[in-house]
Structures are given as structure tokens and as C-alpha cells.
Amino acid sequence: MKLRNLFAVVMLSGVFSLLSAGLFVALDAVDVAFTEAAVGAGISTVLMLGTLALTHQEEKPAQHSRALPLLVVFVTGAALLYGTADLPPFGSADTPVQQHVAPEYIERTPKEIDIPNIVTAVLASYRGYDTLGETVVIFTAGIAVIVLLHGSTRRRRREDGEETDS
Amino acid sequence: MDHHFILRVVSKMLIPPILLYALYVQFHGDFGPGGGFQAGVIFAVGFILYGLVYGLDHLRRVAPPAIVRAGIALGVLLYAGTGAYSLFKDKNYLDYSALADPERAVGGQHLGILLVEAGVGLTVASVMIAVFMAFASRAPEIKDTDW
């Protein structure tokens, strides 16, 4: 399938994001699904549309050969498929990830934090540093976007003003 | 979008439930799925919908850019300040048990999680609104025929 209309591409990626949110629900990761639906399908799509309004709606024809990207995609996909063959069955309790820190969180949360949602307990309390870092990342990204976009409009406006003055 | 009567009416009806739902997600994050990140995004969506339908000037009047920009920093400050408070109470950074009496450490955890989630939500919502404003303020007015 080939799409040059970027509006359709943005819409399709939004649909893909919503579908993967459904996939996360099926995998019992409701917090992640929530984030994916709100950020991936919601905000990202709106911001992409905002970007399209600033640029063009049609993709420019590619200048270079498509053979190398296609090869990279196929090799990566094959490696991922090869990797999934080794994964433990879905939901099995004796996987390494379920035996490392997860039992400790499940055991300690009712005693130490006493809130029903263990995900929130891990996110905000046990891993408070991580979440602080994530918040600072969002802070930095927001500041960067404001500086990049607003700085240039102000400069352009000043240049326009100089032109009208002269 | 002055002549899109149905869009204006429907979005006006939708925005209050969206904001209310964002607050529910924010404060119910201890009990069910949700938390500051999701709530911040949903809260911002209410404003962005308003900006999309009614235009950037109306949005600027509802959410002045200076306040939105202050919100970005205030959220991080609230989070980091909660951590710094426990430092002054001779506890480790971000140890929320410092927020309550020593015999009721669980209450301190509840309060700490509430505060840091509020900080996260404030920063996320402000960043989303500010980024949308930054994009929208550069774009020319979108004509109906463009879509």
C-alpha cells in the first residue's frame, strides 16, 4: 500500500495507536492503554495535524532508492519474530520479570502505601525519582517547543516591522 | 469556523464532561487506572478542542499564555518541592512518610502521591496546551476546503 497524502497517514497512525491501546487492555495493562489512547491517539494526532497545516499535505517523491529501508525493516521484523519464539507463554507466573521485584511490590504496597492501584504506588512512591525525571523531560520538551516556535515568530514579526519602517 | 453550528454546540456540550473526567482520572488514580499523565492530557484536550473549534484568540482569553507557561514550571516545582520538604524533615528525598505523623506513615504516602500526581498533571496539561498554542499560532487560518 502506498500513501502520499499525509493527512491519511496521520489518521491511520491515530487508528493504529487506538488499536494498540485495545491490545494493551487485552494484555491487562490498563494504565498503559489509557496513556496510549490519550497521548498516542489523541494529542499526537492533533499535533501532527497542526504540523501538517504548517507544512504540506502531500509527501514529496523519494529521491533515493527504497531497497535499503525495506531491507532494514525486513531484517528487524525477522529478528523480532525470531525473538518472540523464545518468549515464555503469555501470563505465566514463573517468568523472570514476575519474580524480580514485582512480588515485593505486591506484598509491600498494601502495608506501606495502602492504595489499591499498585501501578500508582510504584510510579509515584517506589519509583518517585523516575517519575520526577519523566516530568522534567516533559517540562524540557515543552520549553524547547515554545522557544523554537515562538522565538522565530517574534523574530519574523520584528523583521516585518523593520520592512514597514524603511 | 464560525458557520459550523453543530460543531460549536456539540463541542460546548462535550468540554465540561471532558474536564470533569480529567479530574476524575487525576484523583481516582490511586484506586483505578489513571494518574497525572493521563489526566493532564485529557484536561488539555478540553482546552485544545475549544481552541480548534472557537479559534486561538478565544483560547488565549480562557487560558492566558503567561499562566499556562507558569503552570509548566509550577508542576515540576510542586513535585520537586514535595521531595525537598521531606529533606527538611530529615528523611530521604521524595520519602512521603515525612508528610504525616511518624505513626501514620501511610497517610503521608497518600498525601505525597496526591501532591506529586497533581504536579505531574499540572505540568503535562500546561505543556500540551502551550505546545498546541505554539503550533496553532504559526499556522494560517485553516480553510474548510483544505481538508
Task: Sum this structure up briefly.
The complex is a heterodimer of chains A (166) and B (147). Chain A is mainly alpha-helical and 166 residues long.
* Fraction in beta strands of chain B: under 5%
Structure annotation, total helices of chain A: 7
The major sheet of chain B is characterized as: none
Quaternary state, please? heterodimer
Helix content of chain B: over 70%
Radius of gyration of chain A (CA) equals 23 Å
> What is the strand tally of chain A?
0
The description of the largest β-sheet of chain A is: none
Low-confidence stretches of chain A: none
Q: What global shape of chain B is seen?
A: elongated
DSSP summary, beta strand count of chain B: 0
Please provide the ordered H/E string of secondary-structure elements of chain B: HHHHH
**Beta strand % of chain A:** under 5%
The domain tally of chain B reads: 1
| N-to-C SSE string of chain A, H for helix and E for strand | HHHHHHH
Shape of chain A: extended
Radius of gyration of chain B: 19 Å
Which pair of chains forms the biggest interface, and how many residues does each contribute?
A-B, 47 and 55 residues
Topology (SSEs and partners):
The complex is a heterodimer of chains A (about 170) and B (about 150).
Chain A: H1 6-26, H2 30-54, H3 67-84, H4 96-99, H5 102-112, H6 118-126, H7 128-165
Chain B: H1 5-27, H2 36-54, H3 56-62, H4 65-88, H5 105-138
Helix pairs in contact in B: 1-2, 2-3, 2-5, 4-5
Would you give an account of this structure?
The complex is a heterodimer of chains A (166) and B (147). Helices cover 76% and strands 0% of the residues of chain A. Chain A is mostly helical and 166 residues long. The termini of chain A are far apart. Chain B has 147 residues and is mainly α. In chain B, 73% of the residues lie in helices and 0% in strands. The chains are: A mainly alpha (166), B mainly alpha (147). At the A-B interface, helix 2, helix 6 and helix 7 of A face helix 2, helix 4 and helix 5 of B.
